[in-house]
Design a protein that fits this description.
heterodimer; A: 234 residues; mainly alpha; 65% helix; B: 906 residues; Dimethylsulfoxide Reductase, domain 2; Barwin-like endoglucanases; 7-stranded mixed beta sheet; 6-stranded mixed beta barrel
Chain lengths: 234, 906
């Protein structure tokens, strides 16, 4: 049975691998289409200020706001947790775990998993890596129970919002469909929008069933995709 | 980002998460614990200020009771970037110092002979007129340099510089050569910067020649960051013959022979070179290797590879085996620490300040050789590494700075010590005895040389001789041994009673702290008006900022000397500049970012500083040397900021030292200490005395007025290893006569394994004394003594009684239960001025015997004629100037109140 410190260290190295996989110089072709950042995927939200607060607490300078940089931060937090358990600094260990959990749930999972999914579908050369890394994050979400499905009556979500953000579509349809908030993300695909979003809704629902630990995110994406189908048809 | 990312080492932040929010500081409500079960609200006004006890300048919050108008307590200021809301015991103990029933509340003038204990109260106006008049006369007669300002607890950066320039006086004296001249020279020779600034929080390996977790310089801000690093997996090594609290918390304790530490560092350097654990890119770019080859190895090709080969050859003999034997530790320890240094690479941090650098002849090489390890590993200016202090300390500009003067004071900067980093203050009585000058007006500013300096009886002789010191003015918040012999004792405020600014290199950032008189600020917020700070403080306790301004007006009342103009209000020249005008200009014009931060809160910059007490000017300050610059040093075709050394690079070989006669010492090397263990009769009764460690809750001469602190620390044993105790026949509590080169003193032995055999130790934080029953020093902490001159130069200090309870307005004074005042051992130490750095080498060769018949605990017996002999012996070690260009001192080396270049000509 591995110790808590060993588990955290293993995770740290897994994050490190992931960080290496999606550096700009190793995935230049994808970066040119859609860099792996929340800002480029979500479009309507810039996480810079929020990330600065999270990293300041650990005297860490993010090299960028992309998946690789965030993964390195996560790796550092996992390593800090590992050292914390090993040196009996339990407050450090639990703080590192907690901050990593919130980092994954608030700033990574909801856009990085769809981005990796798109890579997996559209870039054969990166397919295996994308699948492996996406599965790693989803499994972590299962362990950490980052976003299980909720009724909606718990008072956790503001009116007019879901687990991703405001639900109202942007008036500019082109801009809206360029955002993950529309319910789907494509990198380089040329199918009809209706077909795309209908397929996306099915995909998110299937994912919600497979990964209950993060199901709320995928259910919400599914609902958004259905809504966008209606908009596109109009 | 690199192509092979590494897991970043993260350090949890150290800021407080729970404290009164600043928005509520003007009306903070707490329940009164003493009225329980009744609920009574206490309302406070929280005013930030800066601790005055040690040199760290941590932030404090004064809790002013709105009902009584009194300060109730002090806690940490969470807005202070250095201390982040945390304090050691000395911070909260400020309340003792404010309320001390023994404190000096009014200006006093001697009414009997010096040291008689007879005083009369005078007004501030009378004191200013008398002192200022005398100074004005001296300046009119061209005797400017008979005026001297001698600072103990450092004051505000630049303020006295400005004041002395306005007076035209080369009279800045400091305590530095009993403190840090040694380390300063070691660092300055490398880079021109005289202090280190370690980024402890982000370090992977921390090497300490100090007691940083309990007492070292900037200890509270540093200790909290060292603990953060430790909690993030960093390893700590502490080098100290004594098992300090810091050593006990470290991963490695290296109990070296005193003075051998540079040998250990050179052995580590040798291993780094052997393992090629060297950042070659950094060394190639930033070390003056071309000049080093030219001057030290002219026969070799001028290539970087040849330089590395030369280094390997130079340090070939410093094997781990040699170091282990020389330092008295194991080979395994040498190699293990070297491995940690190598492994940490850029994240290697270290610190030395006093310790071996201030204990030994040639101690300055400790900093020189330690910095060598940073140079080799490239951990200079890096995250988790070591930066020059100048990058982590912010110096604001002062309003209306006068031009510099062209004077040179031989009493402070004698020609024998051209490379001394600061004034040769320990030699003052001897230099005056040699007829090199005299003092007409001598200010001791929170300084107590009779007690603190070595050779205190020579100081006593000087200070009681009016032909040598015409007028001695002691500016002090508390009684002291030296103040007893002064002509004026002028009460100056503690942390909560004065204005000044401070900044220290606590971490990889820059900040500015604002000390302010808490009751004045609280009163002004209520609409009260104060002309001078002593109107708000207890009694007529004043502050120095206003004192020096007003004194300068009394020096030059009609402006004919051209002095007054520097102290006139910019808004109304008929009155002195006010503190609001002075600091208002500083904060508005010389603190980057402060005006904007203040405006964002609807405040002016002075208002911001009054509200928060501190401002962070810059954070994450790294690799300043690599910044592009208009003028600087050319590196690989680009002009970079570089360092302050003559070459702009890090100087392994110092041409300056070579030019000034120190060829062998011009590179990092190993110098034999005056207390080298091989020279001791360790089989007999000789031992090395280590007399320079602090007690965590006391601070030199300034904490005798804090009852909390003396209740914690009130013992003064002589640390002695059981092996030595057995060999010498001592049990714990036995009285020991400890003989130095000029006299002897009596302490009690304490058997402990916490010190290496061959070395004994006693803290310098104990041994306070007073001449009179109820004046001259604090009864919380001092012995009543009899000081007798037994013959020509022969002195004896004998304790009449130890600490006892006494009656006062504070009921705690009748509850005093501690008795041991300790022993003023420094009195029995001769001066040991290092010929290069000017640092007093504190360690002593002593002989230990059982106390003899008639000896009493605390006795100190000294012959000052022997002091003179020792002084003359050490003077023979010097290599006097002038230097190769006919100057008194290399012009590029820093010195306080630097004069114009023509003053350097000998």
């Amino acid at each position: 049975m591995p110790t808590a410190s060993e588990v955290a260290r293993t995770e740290a190295h897994r994050w490190l691998d992931l960080a290496g996989n999606w550096m700009a110089e190793r995935a230049r072709d994808i970066w040119e289409l859609r860099p792996p950042t929340e800002k480029h995927v979500v479009v309507f939200f810039d996480p810079r200020a929020d990330l600065q607060k999270r990293t300041e607490r650990w005297s860490h300078d993010l090299t960028g706001l992309d998946l690789s940089s965030l993964a390195l931060f996560a790796a550092g937090l996992a390593e800090a947790e590992s050292v914390g358990w090993a040196s009996d600094a339990r407050d450090v260990a639990t703080r590192a775990y907690e901050d990593r959990r919130f980092l994954l749930s608030d700033r990574v999972l909801h856009w990085a998993v769809p981005w990796l999914g798109a890579v997996e579908r559209e870039f054969r050369t990166h397919q295996d890596t994308a699948r492996t890394d996406r599965e790693f994050m989803l499994q972590l979400a299962e362990e950490m129970r980052l976003a299980p499905e909720i009724e909606g009556t718990e008072g956790l979500i503001l009116d007019g919002h879901d687990s991703l953000g405001p639900t109202a579509a942007h008036s500019n349809l082109d801009l809206w469909t360029s955002s993950l908030w529309s319910g789907d993300l494509v990198l380089n695909e040329h199918r009809s929008p209706v077909e795309r979003y209908e397929e996306a809704a099915e995909r998110w629902d299937a994912m919600a069933s497979t990964y209950p630990g993060s199901a709320q995110l995928w259910r919400d994406l599914s609902r958004r995709a259905v809504g966008t189908v209606a908009l596109v048809r109009v | 980002m690199t192509t092979t990312p590494e897991i970043p080492r993260l350090v949890p932040g150290g800021g407080l998460t729970n404290y009164p929010p600043p928005d509520l500081w003007d009306d903070w409500v707490e329940w009164d614990a003493k009225t329980w079960p009744q609920k009574k609200q206490n309302r406070f006004r929280l005013v930030p200020t800066t601790c005055f006890n040690c040199e760290s300048a941590c932030g404090l919050l004064g809790y002013v009771d709105k009902e009584t108008g009194e300060i109730r307590r002090f806690e940490g200021n969470p807005a202070h970037p250095g201390s982040r809301g945390r304090n050691c015991a000395k911070g909260p103990a400020t309340i003792n110092q404010v309320n001390d029933p023994e404190r000096i509340l009014y200006p006093l003038r001697r009414s009997g002979a010096r040291g008689s204990g007879d005083w009369e109260r005078v007004s501030w106006e009378d004191a200013l007129a008398d002192i200022g008049g005398r100074m004005g006369k001296a300046i009119r007669e061209g005797r400017n340099d008979e005026i001297m300002y001698h600072v103990g607890r450092p004051g505000e950066d630049g303020f006295m510089d400005r004041t002395l320039k306005a007076w035209g006086v080369d009279g800045h004296n400091s305590h530095t050569n009993i403190c840090s001249s040694g380390a300063r020279v070691g660092y300055a020779i490398w880079s021109g910067y005289d202090r280190p600034s370690a980024d402890f929080a982000n370090a992977q390996f921390i090497l300490l020649l100090s007691s940083h977790l309990e007492t070292g310089h900037y200890f509270n801000p540093h200790a909290q960051r060292i603990m953060e690093a430790k909690r993030s997996g960093a390893k700590i090594a502490t080098i100290d013959p004594r098992l300090s609290n810091t050593a006990s918390m470290s991963d490695y304790w290296l109990s070296t022979w005193p003075g051998t530490e540079p040998g250990l560092f050179l052995a580590i350097a040798r291993l780094l070179l052997e393992w090629d654990a060297v950042d070659h890119e950094f060394v190639r770019r930033w070390v003056n290797w071309e000049k080093s080859l030219e001057k030290r190895f002219p026969e070799r090709p001028r290539t970087y590879e040849a330089f590395i080969d030369a280094l390997k050859q130079t340090y070939e003999s410093f094997t781990p085996e040699w170091a282990a034997e020389e330092c008295g530790i194991s080979v395994d320890q040498v190699v293990a620490v070297a491995e940690e240094v190598a492994k940490a690479g850029h994240r290697f941090a270290s610190h030395t300040w006093r310790s071996t650098g201030s204990g030994n002849l040639g101690g300055w090489q400790a900093a020189r050789t330690l910095q060598f390890l940073h140079v080799l590993t490239g951990s200079v200016g890096t995250k988790g590494g070591l930066s020059p202090a100048g990058w982590g300390k912010f110096k604001p500009a002062h309003w209306n700075m006068p031009p510099t003067h062209g004077r040179w004071n031989e009493l402070l900067w004698p020609i024998e010590y051209p490379l001394a980093h600061h004034e040769m203050s320990i030699l003052l009585p001897h230099l005056i005895n040699q007829g090199r000058g005299k003092l007409d007006v001598y200010f001791t500013r929170v300084y107590n040389p009779i007690w603190t300096n070595p050779d205190g009886f020579s100081w006593l002789e000087m200070l009681t001789d009016e032909s040598k010191v015409g007028l001695h003015v002691a500016l002090t918040p508390t009684w002291s041994e030296t103040a007893q012999y002064a002509d004026y004792v002028l009460p100056m405020g503690v942390a909560a009673e004065r204005h000044d600014t401070h900044s220290y290199e606590t971490h990889a950032a820059q900040w500015l702290g604002f000390r302010q008189p808490v009751l004045r600020v609280a009163g002004e917020r209520e609409g009260k008006k104060f002309n001078r700070t002593y109107e708000a403080n207890p009694g007529e306790v004043w502050e120095e900022t206003e004192f020096w301004i007003d004194l300068s007006w009394h020096v030059d009342p009609d402006g004919s000397l051209g002095i007054r103009k520097w102290f006139e209000s910019p808004n109304d020249p008929s009155r002195p500049v006010s503190v609001d005008e002075y600091y208002g200009w500083m904060f508005e014009n010389s603190v980057p970012g402060l005006p904007e931060a203040a405006a964002a809160e609807g405040l002016d910059p002075l208002g911001y500083m009054r509200k928060y007490g501190a401002f962070e000017v810059a954070r994450d300050v790294y690799r300043v040397h690599e910044r592009p610059a208009e003028t600087g040093v050319e590196i690989d075709g680009e002009t970079k900021t570089g360092f302050k050394s003559p070459s702009g690079k890090l100087e392994w070989y110092s041409e300056t030292m070579d030019d000034w006669g120190w060829h062998d010492e011009s590179i990092p090397t190993y110098l034999k200490t005056h207390v080298h263990w091989r020279d001791m009769d360790l089989g007999g009764r000789e031992r090395i005395l280590l007399p320079i460690f602090r007690l965590p809750t006391l601070i030199h001469t300034r904490s005798g007025n804090a009852k909390y602190l003396y209740e914690i620390s009130h013992g003064h044993p002589l640390w002695m290893n059981p092996a030595d105790a057995d060999a010498l026949g001592f049990e714990t509590g036995d009285m020991v006569r400890i003989t130095t080169d000029i006299g002897w003193f009596v302490m009690r032995a304490w058997r402990t394994q916490g010190i290496r055999p061959g070395v004994v130790a006693a803290s310098h934080h104990m041994g306070r004394w007073r001449l009179n029953e109820d004046s001259g020093n604090e009864r919380w902490s001092s012995a009543l003594v009899d000081v007798q001159q037994l013959g020509d130069g022969q002195w004896r200090l004998r304790q009449q009684k130890g600490i006892e309870p006494f009656e006062s307005d504070d009921p705690d004074s009748s509850r005093i239960w501690w008795r041991d005042p300790g022993v003023n051992q420094n009195l029995a130490f001769p001066v040991h001025p290092d010929p290069v750095s000017g640092m007093h080498a504190w360690h002593q060769r002593v002989t230990l015997v059982a106390a003899k018949d008639g000896d009493q605990y605390g006795d100190v017996v000294v012959d000052t004629r022997k002091s003179t002999q020792v002084f003359e012996q050490w003077m023979e070690l010097t290599k006097p100037g002038p230097g190769p260009d006919g100057t008194r001192r290399p012009m590029w080396l820093d010195r306080p109140v630097k004069p114009t270049p023509d003053a350097y000509r000998f």
